[in-house]
């Protein structure tokens, strides 16, 4: 294809080696050279222009001239360029031809061109335009020139389209590579998006490339700036977020199609066409974009301004639009984004959408996993805390509930406030609250909701025995009783105790985002856990009440028994003394004296039983035994033992023929009145008397008929201890039975059969008394038919130690 | 002469009650002190049954003894007197014996099902007047 020595091949070859969009400049240079011209311009019809009607405008999309002249002019269809577009025929005329628009554009004056040759062209995106070649030499363009330019205009769009494809496919391919190589950490930190922005800018050379993304953890429908590349600083590019539908970017985020505006500076004039293409799109040139662009490009020619082309594609998948990627203002030839570039940008946006959705899906799974982990750890910590508080008996059930709600807020995203309601009769009462906004809503902290009729969604849940209820829109929640006007979603989880529902955990969220998929399980588990705590707390509260009542009862009983003891004590002592005085008077003998001794014995027995009751009450009520120690004097001890022996013998059925024999010899070492050189023992006298009486009573009851009970004593353990022993021949005590005999309420089977009375507390009381003395109750199992029980006292080392001291072992 | 069987394991009370009944009715009072003695001598009781049996409810099985047989499993002291009453009611030879249950415990402490239908129940008091009244009533009802 040759024309006057010129070949289209030269243009094709030049186009073939271009790898960047600005390669169009080189293609225009070749055309200029082939045409013997001074420079070449590519005029395009602005979108919305009506060629037939001659309305609209033409703008310079690209040019090559050998001078530092900015050729960013516009023409109406009244111009020669407009005439060529309308006629569809190439033409060549002189620059002074009247058909050339007057005044001529500034660059024409600056170029000093004399002739121009024009050929209509149809761009790859079907935009009509004109190739215009200028010539300075005074030689008008020939028909051959016109024909050649016509041929160039025929192939130029294909060559440019081919170049755009190469650049576009390479860009999409590179972006795919960036995404493919990115790890989740890189995506999460938006590094990947920054790389993509860089790559797009490398191909499209923009004033600004930005990516906006919706963050799933924040409010829905808000798209924040995630990555950007800017050469044009200013307020326009500082806007960091768009709401769905807000401005041109928000418009794209709300839809699924890319938007391309050829020149923002002509937004107002071309608004009809833009609205036709993108219904509902609203954009306001509040920043006077044309002036700002002129400032940026340092243009002093008032007529010149490059087209402020804008293209934006939604970052999306089939289901969702996640954000948008936008390019604004080309900084090189061609000075606008054509439809093909918009399609390539859309390709990138689709890949970014898949990448982001995949990342969010993985993130959601990861968060779900972390949620379960947090829940498990939370349960563990809560259980420990509950255990600790229950052990300390300082627990407050509301605190357990708050712990559980705190955990719920931790593991369920976008929760704002919650409360726990407990079933009380026909009502649900708020037991604890957690989260934001309760300060401004004090009534809600102590709210009542009737169960029937349903006073709230919780009431409905309890009355209808529902499981976990989740409403992503509270308007759908039955019988919903709003606490907070801003609440948008609620979760209601039953607190269960066995088959019963004892309360409801109510969690609220102000976020429009739906709850995550695992929320039903989590809320269910939390509800169960709360039900468990509530049940546990109720049971413990019941036990504590019982314990308190029991303690009060014991105290009352103890007091009553104590009162009885004091009331009985005086008449018993008086009776005892009366009997004793009558015996001592010697006025009675024979059967009368025996009756008196029986009477004294009975008084003694009653006194002992009543004292036992008092001590039982004290010990059962965990009141310590308080000792009032005095020095144990030999003659007084022997007197007491003699009387005790006599009393027990007197009370024993004479037909059983059981005798008590006191062996006094062993007691000689015990201090008498002089105390010198003798063993000193401190004891609480009434308690000692009671102990001796208890063990003698056992001996009387369990001895075989016709036997002798031996009462003796002395020093043992190399002088460290004093013992008072009662040895008898009777029911066998086996070695394994010895510890049992000291237990409260224990009675051996043979012992029960041998005596109808008795409660098994006698030896237990003696053991406690002896321990309070720092001594012990020693029971020797039956050997050779003899069983011995000893009261063992520690010997006091010196007189100076005599005191009403407390238990030396610190026991009660 | 009224024949009374008194089963009471406290020897002091036994003596006192025996004396009171003897004085009140010029009765012939036979005493026993434990359940094993009652069971052992039941045949002789049946052979010559008393008119009235005064039974303490809580009785030991037997005094400790080298020769004593172990107590039967069911021989707990708490219902020993009731078992004695049941034995008397169950035997045709003694079923007409008037029974007085005599205890320190109130009647309400025992399940109604445990108490024989026709037995009188008397709570032990310091004097024996209520016991004497109960025996008098039984005698009067028998005479009618």
* Element-level helix/strand string of chain B: EHEHHEHEEH
> Any idea what the radius of gyration of chain B is?
14 Å
The side-by-side strand order for the widest beta sheet of chain B comes to 2-1-3-4-5
Total number of strands of chain B = 5
Poorly predicted ranges of chain A? 799-812
Main sheet: strand order of chain A: 5-4-3-8-7-6
Mean pLDDT of chain A: 87
Structural class by sheet pairing and helices of chain B: alpha/beta
Portion of residues in helices of chain B? 25-40%
Rough outline of chain B: globular
Q: Using a beta-carbon cutoff below 8 angstroms, give the protein chain pair with the largest interface and the number of residues from each chain.
A: A-B, 22 and 19 residues
Q: What fraction of residues of chain B sit in β-strands?
A: 15-25%
Please give the CATH class of chain B.
Answer: Alpha Beta
Structural class of chain A: alpha+beta
Number of strands of chain A: 27
Description:
The complex is a heterodimer of chains A (812) and B (144). With 812 residues, chain A is an alpha+beta fold. Helix content of chain A is 43%, strand content 21%. Chain A contains 21 helices and 27 strands. In chain A, the strands form 6 sheets. A 6-stranded antiparallel sheet of chain A has the order 5-4-3-8-7-6, sandwiched between helices. In chain A, helix 12 (339-392) packs antiparallel against helix 13, helix 12 (339-392) packs parallel to helix 15 and helix 15 (519-585) packs antiparallel against helix 16. The longest helix of chain A is centred in the C-terminal third of the chain and has 67 residues, at 519-585. Chain B is of the alpha/beta class and 144 residues long. Chain B has a single domain (3-63, 71-143), classed as Rossmann fold. Chain B is built from 5 helices and 5 strands, in the order βαβααβαββα. The interface between A and B is medium-sized, with 22 and 19 residues.
Give a concise summary.
The complex is a heterodimer of chains A (812) and B (144). With 812 residues, chain A is an alpha+beta fold.
């Amino acid at each position: 294809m040759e024309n006057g020595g010129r070949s289209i091949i030269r243009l094709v070859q030049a186009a073939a080696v271009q790898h960047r969009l600005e390669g169009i400049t080189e293609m225009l240079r070749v055309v200029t050279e082939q045409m013997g011209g001074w420079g070449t311009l590519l005029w395009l019809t602005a979108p919305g222009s009506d060629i037939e009607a001659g309305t609209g405008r033409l703008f310079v999309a690209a040019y090559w001239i050998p001078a530092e002249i900015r050729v960013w002019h516009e023409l109406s269809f009244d111009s020669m360029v407009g005439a060529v577009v309308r006629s569809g025929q190439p033409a060549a005329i002189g620059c002074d031809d009247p058909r050339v628009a007057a005044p001529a554009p500034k660059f024409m004056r600056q170029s000093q061109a004399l002739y121009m040759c024009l050929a209509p062209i149809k761009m790859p995106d079907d935009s009509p335009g004109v190739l215009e070649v200028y010539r300075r030499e005074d030689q008008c363009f020939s028909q051959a020139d016109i024909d050649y330019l016509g041929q160039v205009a025929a192939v130029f769009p294909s060559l440019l389209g081919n170049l755009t494809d190469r650049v576009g496919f390479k860009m999409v391919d590179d972006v795919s590579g960036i995404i493919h190589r990115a790890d989740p950490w890189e995506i999460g930190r938006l590094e990947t998006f920054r790389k993509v922005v860089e790559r797009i800018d490398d191909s499209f050379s923009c004033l600004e490339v930005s990516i906006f993304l919706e963050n799933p953890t924040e409010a829905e429908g808000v798209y924040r700036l995630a990555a950007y590349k800017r050469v044009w600083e200013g307020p326009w590019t500082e806007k960091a977020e768009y709401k769905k539908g807000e401005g041109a970017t928000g418009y794209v985020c709300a839809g699924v199609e890319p938007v391309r505006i050829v020149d923002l500076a002509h937004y107002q004039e071309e608004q009809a066409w833009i609205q036709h293409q993108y219904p509902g799109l609203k954009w306001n040139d509040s920043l006077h974009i044309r002036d700002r662009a002129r400032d940026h490009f340092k243009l002093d020619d008032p007529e010149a301004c490059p087209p402020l082309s804008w293209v934006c594609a939604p970052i999306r998948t089939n289901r969702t639009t996640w954000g948008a990627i936008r390019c604004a203002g080309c900084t090189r030839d061609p000075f606008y984004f054509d439809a093909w570039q918009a399609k390539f940008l859309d390709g990138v946006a689709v890949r970014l959408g898949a990448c982001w959705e995949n990342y969010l899906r993985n993130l959601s799974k990861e968060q779900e996993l972390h949620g379960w982990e947090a829940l498990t750890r939370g349960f563990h910590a809560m259980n420990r805390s509950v255990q600790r508080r229950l052990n300390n008996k300082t627990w407050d059930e509301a605190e357990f509930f708050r712990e559980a709600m705190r955990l719920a807020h931790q593991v369920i995203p976008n929760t704002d406030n919650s409360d726990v309601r407990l079933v009380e009769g026909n009502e649900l009462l708020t037991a604890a609250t957690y989260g934001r906004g309760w300060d401004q809503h004090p009534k809600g902290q102590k709210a009542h909701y009737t169960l029937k009729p349903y006073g709230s969604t919780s009431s409905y849940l309890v009355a209808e025995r529902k499981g976990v209820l989740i409403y992503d829109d509270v308007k759908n929640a039955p019988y919903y009783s709003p606490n907070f006007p801003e609440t948008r979603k609620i979760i209601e989880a039953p607190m269960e105790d066995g088959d019963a529902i004892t309360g409801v955990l109510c969690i609220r969220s102000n976020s429009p985002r739906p709850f995550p998929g695992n929320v039903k399980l989590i809320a269910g588990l939390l509800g169960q856990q709360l039900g468990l705590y509530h049940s546990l707390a109720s049971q413990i509260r019941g036990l504590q009440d019982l314990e308190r009542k029991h303690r009060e009862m014991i105290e009352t009983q103890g007091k009553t028994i104590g009162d009885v003891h004091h009331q009985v004590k005086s008449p018993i002592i008086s009776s005892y003394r009366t009997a004793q005085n009558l015996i001592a008077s010697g006025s009675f003998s024979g059967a009368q004296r025996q009756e008196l001794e029986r009477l004294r014995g009975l008084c003694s027995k009653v006194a002992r039983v009543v004292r036992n009751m008092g001590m039982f009450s004290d010990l059962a009520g965990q009141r310590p035994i308080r000792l009032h120690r005095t020095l144990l004097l030999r003659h007084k001890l022997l007197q007491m033992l003699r009387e005790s022996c006599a009393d027990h013998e007197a009370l024993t059925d004479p037909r059983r023929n059981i005798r008590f024999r006191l062996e006094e010899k062993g007691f000689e070492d015990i201090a008498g009145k002089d105390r010198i050189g003798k063993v000193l023992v401190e004891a609480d006298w009434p308690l000692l008397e009671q102990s001796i009486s208890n063990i003698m009573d056992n001996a009387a009851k369990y001895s075989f008929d016709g036997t002798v009970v031996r009462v003796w004593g002395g020093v043992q353990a190399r002088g460290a201890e004093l013992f008072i022993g009662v040895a008898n021949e009777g029911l066998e005590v086996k070695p394994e039975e010895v510890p049992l005999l000291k237990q409260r309420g224990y009675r051996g089977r043979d012992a029960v059969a041998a005596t109808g009375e008795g409660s098994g507390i006698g030896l237990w009381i003696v053991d406690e008394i002896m321990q309070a003395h720092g001594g012990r109750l020693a029971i020797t199992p039956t050997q050779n038919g003899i069983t011995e029980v000893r009261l063992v006292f520690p010997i006091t080392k010196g007189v100076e130690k005599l005191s009403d001291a407390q238990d030396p072992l610190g026991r009660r | 002469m009224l024949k009374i069987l008194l089963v009471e394991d406290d020897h002091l009370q036994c003596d006192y009650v025996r004396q009171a009944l003897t004085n009140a009715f010029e009765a012939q009072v036979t005493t026993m002190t434990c359940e094993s003695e009652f069971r052992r001598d039941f045949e002789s009781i049946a052979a010559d049954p008393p008119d009235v049996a005064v039974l303490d409810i809580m009785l030991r099985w037997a005094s400790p003894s080298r020769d004593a047989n172990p107590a039967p499993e069911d021989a707990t002291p708490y219902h020993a007197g009731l078992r004695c009453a049941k034995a008397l009611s169950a035997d045709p030879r003694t079923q007409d014996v008037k029974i007085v249950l005599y205890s320190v415990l109130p009647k309400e402490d025992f399940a109604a099902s445990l108490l024989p239908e026709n037995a009188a129940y008397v709570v032990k008091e310091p004097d024996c007047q209520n016991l004497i009244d109960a025996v008098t009533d039984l005698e009067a009802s028998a005479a009618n």
